Amino acid sequence: MGYTHYYQVKNWDSPVWQAIWPHLIQDALLIIEASDVFLTGPAKSTDIITSPITSVDEGILFNGVGIYGHDTFHFCREDQNQRQFMKTEEKPYDLPVACILLRASILCPQGIKVRSDGKWDGLLWKAIRNLHETLWPEDCLQCPWQNYDEDDFWENQQPRESIGLLAQRSTTKSGATRINEKEQQSTQQDPSKSREDSKSFFASRAGYTITAAQLKPIIGWLRDCEERPDHNRCIANPLRWHNLPASAFDSLTFTREASSSPLKGAPLPY
Predict the structure, then answer these.
(1) Which domain range does residue 259 map to?
(2) Distance from C-alpha of 118 to C-alpha of 95, rounded to nearest angstrom
(3) Spatial distance between the Cα atoms of 164 and 160, rounded to a whole number of angstroms
(4) 39-43, 221-225, 262-266: segment of lowest average pLDDT
């Protein structure tokens, strides 16, 4: 089936889940902005970019752009009734998808189950954990699926399309860790594991450039902003990431016009 994450909200109407849902929506927006991945919301064709959806009512909805997308991530009550797994094929948008699922398990561990085909100590999940730790350094991260076996994960509510998928995969359990000496020891004990993870991780990102994206909306946004010396439209938007460490945005690249001082602190053009 391909690289997949599995998740199950136990009860959408429970007071504890309803309490954290608005917070998860806001945190998902921050994750999307900080992940530095080309994303799109719903669109009539694959060559059009729209804004990802993060709404208490509509849920969380986005995909990768062009050939860098796969299954659309739609995390909401309605979609949960139809599908409880998310196949990303290790494409770049896997980073915000998995980080949002991880964030949900941190905010409400008793309200959601999360599993992954990935390894908690593998390169993909290290990148996910690094992103989470950059945004919420005070949280102590634990592997969400360390206490779940394949047989009891779905509790007799396994979706039709995923029957047998978990049984076909073996995911090594790992304890609650950060990126520390334990992970280094694991890599030293099995160097082939690191090489295998590295090959898969970087192969999925080979050739990942903006040429696959429809840039007209972004170009229009920059041109409109450039023609307005006071940048009123930018300033009017809420500032969501201006306090993040600069290291979170090292790989962001803007044109000379777009990197002018009035744009500092403005939301990214997703």
Answers:
(1) 215-263
(2) 12
(3) 9
(4) 262-266
Cα–Cα distance, 94 to 88 (Å, whole number) = 6
Number of domains in the chain: 2
**What is the maximum span of the chain, computed from C-alpha positions, in angstroms?**
60
Last residue of a domain, one of 166, 183, 203: 203
**CA atoms 123, 128, 132, 134: torsion sign:** positive
pLDDT digits (tens, 9 = 90+) for 87-134: 999 999 999 999 999 999 999 999 999 999 999 999 999 999 999 999
Residue pair 219/254 in contact by the 8 Å Cβ criterion? no
User: What's the token pair of residue 82?
Assistant: 């139809």
Cβ–Cβ < 8 Å for 224, 233: yes
Its pTM stands at 0.60
What is the C-alpha separation between 235 and 33, in angstroms, rounded?
Answer: 17
